[in-house]
Every structure is written in structure tokens, then in C-alpha cells.
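S.,

As promised, the iron/sulfur cluster run. Input:
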Amino acid sequence: MVEKIVLDPFGTTLITDYSRLFEEFGLQRIDEKILERIKNPSRYLRRGITFAHRDFDKFLDAFERGEKIAVISGIKPSNEFHLGSKMTAEEMIYYQKEFKAKVFYCIADLEALVDNQIPLEKAKEIAVGNLADILALGLDLKNSFVYMQSREKRVTNLAYLFSRRVTLSHLKSLYGERPLGLYFAALTQAGDILLPQLKDFEGPKHVLVPIGIDQDPHIKLVRDLIPKVKEFNFIIPSSTYHKLQRSLKGEAKMSKRDPMSYISLSDEPEIAKKKVLNAVDGGRKTAEEQKRLGGEPEKCLVYELCLFHFIEDDEKIKEMYEDCKSGKILCGECKKRVAEIVAKFLEKHQKERRRKMEKARKILD
Ligand code: SF4
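Predicted complex:
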């Protein structure tokens, strides 16, 4: 029997076959028709990493009509910035640069409190580092609204209102049986997603929410809530979904409990190198076999690192794929090359991050 896919924003989501999601969850494909409307598609869009959407075409329509548009996403300050957080951050920065969308960046400290039991003061310290990371990645503060959930009354007020318009059985159908706090965290996220459409931010507008596929229940909740809060005239937000970065050890999702299974943007470059060298690859049992049969880049986490993050040039990633497939390159040499690329990226990023720390602290103080 085929196992049911469960998208769980508060737990672990295992997806081995992304093609099932379109039918099972009613998602739309990011296909050629969508891509040809975008002048300069991001690495994630070009490579099918951002693979699905709900109403992304409507967001593109609004952009083409020259309307004011916004993009919202955020981070739960429970840990250092890892490559999954980098994906969402880069997507927001991309829409800010290419679409002139205003970025709403939420630091979900209330969610860190109820989900991970991290006190607000500690979450703030983590958030300073997280914010410095996104600033180092290129967020332009001039067209951004950065906020901490616990201090943004407009968001919590919306969450209270939503809690009156939704039933417990509805929340259970979306999230399963959960502690009440997590249901309230979900309602708070609904408040975050709709914040850009409040009068204080020039009212209803098309908003894009770029997220990992495991976060889709939050989008469904918002879509269900909108008809119940007609007084706001909210426009249904659009959403895009990226694939989940697999753990370097080959599991379907990175585990924050095992630091060797993922790369954090705060990793010492030398440690990150070791992680790359120890990552699960798609090599064969012997060098002779690999030269004869070629490697299996589809299974290789080192290739995935480059595809998702570290090789921007499409020609170069194609070359890496072909060199692997043909057996021209062996894993030892390939991993060493990638380890150097990752270490260089981290050195540069961390230098920039240090420069942004003071600014990040000032914003959050
Ligand atoms: S050669 Fe490189 S891309 Fe191919 S399986 Fe080995 S590490 Fe992965």
C-alpha cells in the first residue's frame, strides 16, 4: 500500500515522490508557462527546486499590472541559520530585487516559545544572528518591514480574532492532534501572512508566501479563514513551495539535533568542509566501477548542495552532473572541490555577517 504523505509544519515531513503532491494536495506546477512570464528566474525556479504553487499566476498578474505587491516569510529563532533558512531568505530577497516587492520578514519568537520552549529573551539573541544572516545575504532594509512576532500587536490581535472564527476540529484536520499552543501558533502565522494587507500597510494587495512544502497547512488555514473575516477584504495570498533540503546523511529532512547532518551559515569553514567530505554521495563501490558505470548524482547530497546553493552557473552544474554520470570524476576529488567552494562561501558570508551584527541588534532593540 502507498503511504499517505503528511505535510506537517510542526514535525517531520517525508517526501520521496514530489509528483504525488499535485494531485493529493491540489497544488499547481511551476511549469514553462509560469517560467516564461518571469524575466530573470531565480536559481530555485530555474532548477525546479521551487516546484509548485497556489495562485502564483495571480501574483504575476498583479506585478504585470504594476500594482504594489509584497512578499512575506520568516524564521523561527530556535537555532542558527541553516541552508533551509537560506532558501526562504534568498527567495524573499529575489522578489524584493526582481519584482520590487516589499518584504515582510517575521521573526517568529512566539512560535519558538510554544514549539521549542525558548524564552523570548533567548530567542531575541538568536534572532539578532538570524537577522544579520539575512542582511548579509542581501536584504534591503529600505523596502522591508522586519518584526518580532511577540512585539507586533497587529499580528496577535488578528490571531485572537481568527481563533473565534475557526473550530478545533478544523485545526485538527489541518495539523492533527496538537497542544493548544501550536494551534495558536498557527493562527498567529495566519496573522503574519495577512499583516501586509492591513490598512496600516496600504490595505489589500497581492502577497506571495515562498515556503517549504511542509508549511502548506498554514496556507490552507489562511485560505479557509479569509471568507470568515470578510470585513478586511483580504486578497487570497499566493504561495510557492520549495523542495526540502535532505540531510547530509541522506535522511529526507535535515535534523537540527544532529549538527553533522546539515550546514549552518555559522559553521567554521573547516567543520563545514568535513561535513561535505563525510556526506552521503552517489558513488559506486569501487573506483573502477565508478569509472565504468558513472556515479548517481540524483542520490548524491554533495551534488544537491551545489544544485540548491553553491553553483549558480547553470552550465557549471550541468557539467558537474555530466562528469559524474560519465565517471569522468570520482567522489573523492569532487567532494574536495565542493568542500572548498562551501568553505569560501562561508568565509565571505561570515565576514559580511559580522559587519551586519550591530545593525541587526539595533533593529531588534
Ligand atoms: S562524483 Fe561528485 S556528484 Fe558524483 S556521486 Fe560522487 S560526490 Fe556526488
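The chain has 16 helices and seven strands. The longest strand covers residues 69-75.

- D.
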